[in-house]
Amino acid sequence: MRASVTFALAASLAAFAGSRADKKDKDAGSKYVDSGSFGVFVKGQRVASETFHIQQQNSNSLIQSELKEGNGGSPAVQKSDLEITSTGELLRYDWSQAAGGSLSVSPNNDFLIEKITTPASTKPAEQPFLMPSTSSILDNNFFIHREVLAWRFLAADCKQDSDGLKCQKDPGEFGVLVPQDRTSIHVRLELVGKEKVTIRGTERELLRLNLTGESFTWALWLDDRDQFKLMRVAIPADNTEVVRD
Description:
Blueprint (H helix, E strand, L loop, with lengths): L8 H8 L13 E13 L2 E13 L2 E10 L6 E10 L4 E8 L4 E7 L2 E7 L7 E5 L6 E2 L6 H14 E4 L2 E4 L4 E7 L4 E17 L2 E11 L4 E7 L5 E7 L4 E5 L1
Parallel strand pairs: 9-12
Antiparallel strand pairs: 1-2, 1-17, 2-3, 3-4, 4-5, 5-6, 6-7, 7-8, 10-11, 12-13, 13-14, 14-15, 15-16, 16-17
């Protein structure tokens, strides 16, 4: 884990995108840096939708997401709230589902403490992880967390110059917590370069990153012309594709 690397969400956008967010709320100290939705497709069929927004609130950033699984009827709903400081340190993470059950993660000295409440119990169980507060959250099903991690990599290991984006040769390595799995892992992000990708029938040139772990390989495509927003994710092993609506 690159614990010494700092990550400022607004700074990364300013450095790479060179523009300010379009939407601001009534509080002058708060602004949205990204919002929208992802469609999750398995073998070409839409199976879930994730609605999200990332809001900068003074020196902190709030990443909120809602995932709805299924089509029609009463979809299964999951919600997550991730709050980090301007230096990328975790303040809190909360997850819940409509069917019951919730969890939270908060830092405590050199540990991250996860508290899990099941539908059958009102008293939360605790599980400590020996991880710094600068560790990233990559929870299941919330693809916006991958965008935040990609921004962190770009801010730490890349720079924009007149010839384009330049990154260090070695992949960026990050220690992350996967709260729903109650496990910690190491992941790697590596810049591949520009690729032409077809999204909803339109060919676009996007920036590709590879996200890898011990047992998975994902491809991420970001729009370097629009604040490095995550546009597409491919998970070949699961026949899964995630596309921004």
